[in-house]
Design a protein that fits this description.
161 residues, Glucose Oxidase, domain 1, eight-stranded mixed β-sheet, 4 helices, 8 strands
C-alpha cells in the first residue's frame, strides 16, 4: 500500500474512489452544481461525476465563484468526499469552510506535491486521514506505458504554461 503525507488545508477523514487529473478545474462553469458532473468540454474529466469521490488535481482555476459552486454541490449532496490539491488552494478551501459552517458538512482538503499527484493518477480508491496521511487502497496495475508517457508529457506541458 502506498502512503503519502500531505499538508491538511482542511483536516478530515474521507475514503472513496479517486477522480484524478493533472489539469486545474474551474468549478464555475466547469462542474454542474446540480449533478456534480464535470461539464467543461475541454477538460479530460468531462462527463465524470465528482460526487462522493476524492478529487485529486492541481486546484481550481478561474473565478472565485468556484467556492459558491462547491457550496451548491454540498447543498445538492453531489460534492466530492475530499480533495487533494498540488497548489495552495484558496477558492475551494473557502467553499469547504463555508460548507462546514453552514451545513455541517466536512470536506477535507489536503495539499500534496505535483509528483504525488502524478502517483495518484493510477489510484482507484484512497483514504484520507485527519493528519494528512493518504493511503492508496487500490491502484490500476495495468496502466499502459503509452498512457503513462502521455500523462507525463501533458504534465510537463502544463507546468511550463
Amino acid at each position: 500500500m502506498t502512503t503519502i503525507y500531505g499538508l491538511p488545508l482542511i483536516p478530515g477523514i474521507a475514503e472513496g474512489a479517486v477522480l484524478a487529473s493533472i489539469h486545474p478545474l474551474s468549478f464555475w462553469g466547469g462542474v454542474d452544481p446540480e449533478t456534480g458532473i464535470v461539464i467543461d468540454q475541454r477538460h479530460e474529466l468531462c462527463g465524470q461525476s465528482t460526487a462522493g469521490k476524492i478529487l485529486a488535481f492541481p486546484g481550481s482555476k478561474g473565478s472565485s465563484t468556484g467556492s459558491e459552486v462547491l457550496l451548491e454541490t454540498v447543498l445538492n449532496k453531489v460534492a466530492p468526499a475530499g480533495m487533494l490539491v498540488s497548489r495552495q488552494e484558496m477558492i475551494l478551501t473557502l467553499g469547504a469552510l463555508l460548507a462546514e459552517y453552514l451545513y455541517q458538512v466536512h470536506l477535507p482538503i489536503i495539499k500534496i506535491s505535483d509528483d504525488e499527484l502524478k502517483q495518484l493518477l493510477k489510484a482507484v480508491c484512497i483514504r484520507i486521514n485527519e493528519d494528512g496521511k493518504i493511503e492508496v487502497l487500490e491502484t490500476r496495475k495495468n496502466m499502459s506505458l503509452k498512457k503513462e508517457q502521455s500523462i507525463n508529457k501533458r504534465s510537463r506541458k502544463w507546468q511550463t504554461n
